[in-house]
Amino acid sequence: MSVINNSGNHPQFKRVLNLRDLVIYGIAFMTPIAPAYIYGYAAVSTKGMLPLAYLIAMIAMMFSAYSYGRMAAAFPVAGSTYSYTQRSINPHLGFFAGWAMFMDYVLVPLIVFMVGASYANALVPAIPYWGWVLIIAAVITFVNILGIEMAAKTNNILVLFMGIVVVIFVVFCIKAVIGGEGEATILSIKPFFNDGSFATSAIVAGAAMACFSFLGFDSITTLSEEAINPKDNMWKAAILSCLIGGIIFIVQAYVSQLVWPDVHSFSSADTALFDIAKVAGGAALATVYTIAIIVSTFTAGMTGQASASRLMFSMGRDEVLPKRFFTYIHPKYKTPILNIMLMCVISVVGALALPASFVAELMNFGGLTGFMFVNLSVIIYYYFRKKERKFIRYFLIPALGFLICFYLFINLSPLTLKVGFIWLAIGFVYAIITTKGFRKKPPTMEGL
């Protein structure tokens, strides 16, 4: 169990997570079965070339994963994007980076509560949607209160199950294609380039949407204070989880496209991969895939809730949020129980009151904003402040990461941008109040 050492003025987490735990944690947050959440809409948006959009998104995320790893190596503390921007660029700007990512972390467990409850209700309609929301919330919150070690062990089992289901799904799709379904050939360039329907704007929009599936590799860095050898393992875990997750997404999208080439003929865009699963493996495969979707809500929900609670812990420790509440540690379980409970309440209320499509649209705003801040942090901290003139490592790679994320950011929907900037405006007002018009500098973390 993750024990807190209360020596000194600030509580500290026990280091118990190895490289494998961290990689699995990131993949669990992204969930191996993530394409099922967006496949129908994204396939239509990309005109049947979602594998290409996933490839572009993966490459884009690799740049940011590198930057997250570099900053985690420099500052192995909880807080992730917030901590890196605060220490590398400016304390006030760090608050806005954390504020943007905070929205992202809050929305992850919220949307998986929605998705899990919807599919669970379809599988067992005797229990209403709201009942499933409460059941999922109770299980996830209970595991996180017991401690990060318990969550890590649970994730290992659930991610293995989802991985097996994904492999079964891919095998059945390949078998169906070889048997004459869809394209009737396992080798085709169309999922990556279809000359008859290719449009750069559609692929870019699809890549921006595909980033949704990658939101999670960055959550690994919020566990820096609980990682063994964080300076070496954090950057490896960020890159590995992003790469492995991307390959898993691309393969699923590729075989799905081969089985069902006409992306406009799904019975419902919400359940596109279930239509494909039925064609590839019948009702049994569709049922197993449904169960895997429900399982994915537990893995993503646990990691999302854990990451958000630790981000709040870090911001509370810096007195950007009320310290007494947000840094409270349970005397027995040694976890930030109040933060975990707060996340549970927010997620349950949101899952019962908001539409899933609206929540999904907002997630990329926070994620891409955070990625841009971290890429800038690498350049400013290493290249300018520390004067490590390694152009490719500390300037070119993070600069490309920033530019790619910015390009995807400006291609988000107008509604997403509008609501996202309203969220930032609320944070701006809060910052003015708490810092007395920015005259009071937010406390800087010790141990620089």
TrEMBL record:
It holds the Pfam family AA_permease. GO terms for biological process: transmembrane transport. It comes from the Bacteria. GO terms for cellular component: membrane. PANTHER family: AMINO ACID TRANSPORTER-RELATED, PUTRESCINE IMPORTER PUUP. Gene3D superfamilies: Amino acid/polyamine transporter I. Its main location: membrane. It is found in: Membrane. This is Amino acid permease. It comes from Heyndrickxia oleronia. InterPro entries: AA-permease/SLC12A_dom, APC_superfamily. It is a multi-pass membrane protein. Transmembrane segments: none annotated. Keywords: Membrane, Transmembrane, Transmembrane helix.
